[in-house]
Amino acid sequence: MLWKRYLRPKSIAEALDALTASRGRAALIAGGTDLMLDLQQGRRAAVETLVDITAIPELQRLEVREASLFVGAGVPLSRVAASREVQTHAQALAEAAGQMAGPQVRHVATLGGNVAHALPAADGAMALLALDARAEIASPAGRRESPLPALYRGPGQSALAPDELLVGFHLPLRQPGQASAFRRVMRPQGVALPILNAAVWLARAGAHIASARIVVAPFGPVPRRALAAESALCGQPLTPQAVDRALEALLAEARFRTSRYRATAEYRRHLAGILLREALHTAWERAAAQTGGPRSEKEE
Questions:
Q1: Number of domains making up the chain
Q2: Is pLDDT at 44 greater than 90 in this prediction?
Q3: Count of other CB atoms within 10 angstroms of residue 151
Q4: Contact 144/241 with Cβ under 8 angstroms?
Q5: Which among 105, 238, 241, 273 could bridge 101 via Cys, Cβ 3.0 to 4.6 Å?
Q6: Taking a C-beta distance cutoff of 8 angstroms, is the pair 267, 279 a contact?
């Protein structure tokens, strides 16, 4: 048996009580698309208690709350991708959620699971990072918010404590002149994980980039933004020369590695330029559509 007890709490308080009582021998399950494979294939030790969180209403909420968009950790990827609110305020997240795995998996896999599994190139997590999302976490001590990078210790190693529950994500609402985009490349057969992905958010100030957030993954053992590339773009018009400088800065700090099952480090470096350019130009054009500003030099 892979577990001994199965619980289905109806509230966050009940779920936390179950986690506390298990003393680290429980596992949270929602979609289970990663957890069940890990248990069946021996990549995770058998657990004593499975705590099914799909009946907790707060984890299923997807709504605009004053100055932020809240996406519950238990919201399935298919619902994230189809949400008008997500498409309006966080288009990179809608695109990422819509490209992961296949339709059957997207109907059950959750955004919270995509983050909690702590893979360094999880599509949904990378889009959230570019969108400056903050995670809401519940524990017996209360609730707190955390930046996305703080949830990772290493590849597949979550920083969430055994008695903590990921409630959802708070994303800033999109303002005029702001936009985002997501791009990925994966193998046509076999492993559904990305060879490389790129998420970009930017804000325009007339014909220049006022600020930008760039995530290309897997960038290293844990997710992080390409800060040098962002700095190279800020205050610049989106010209081929500006993008070349940003790519040069990104490649200088990236730690791409060769994967036996997916791609070589050299191929990932090649893809980084393609995906960065596509995501930047798409986000720029989306921001221009809001403001009526000029398009990129590439398009003029």
A1: 2
A2: no
A3: 20
A4: no
A5: 105
A6: no
From the list 163, 115, 121, 117, the residue with the least C-alpha distance to 135 is 115
Of 171, 198, 217, the one marking the end of a domain is 171
Across residues 85-96, what is the average pLDDT?
A: 98
Two tokens at 137?
């976490």
Rounded CA-CA distance 9/13 in Å is 8
- Please identify which residue in the block is written with the tokens 């021998």: 25
In a domain, 297, yes or no: no
- Does pLDDT of 295 surpass 50? yes
Token pair belonging to 43? 């990549």
Q: What confidence score (pLDDT) does residue 270 get?
A: 97
Phi and psi for 245 in degrees, rounded to 5?
A: -65, -40
Token code pair at residue 128: 């959230």
Per-residue exposure over 113-140, b if at least 16 CB sit within 10 Å of its own CB, e if not: bbbbbbbbbbbbbbbbbbbebbbbbbbe
Neighbouring residues of 167: CB distance < 8 A, sequence distance ≥ 6? 12, 58, 59, 72, 73, 135, 136, 137, 138, 143
Assess whether pLDDT exceeds 90 at residue 69: yes
State pTM to two decimals. 0.94
Q: What is the pLDDT, as a whole number, of residue 46?
A: 83
What is the model's pLDDT at position 299? 40
What is the model's pLDDT at position 187? Answer: 74
pLDDT of residue 189: 60
In which domain, by residue range, is 162 found?
5-171
Please provide the average confidence, as pLDDT, over all residues in the chain: 94
CATH number of the domain at 36, please.
Answer: 3.30.465.10
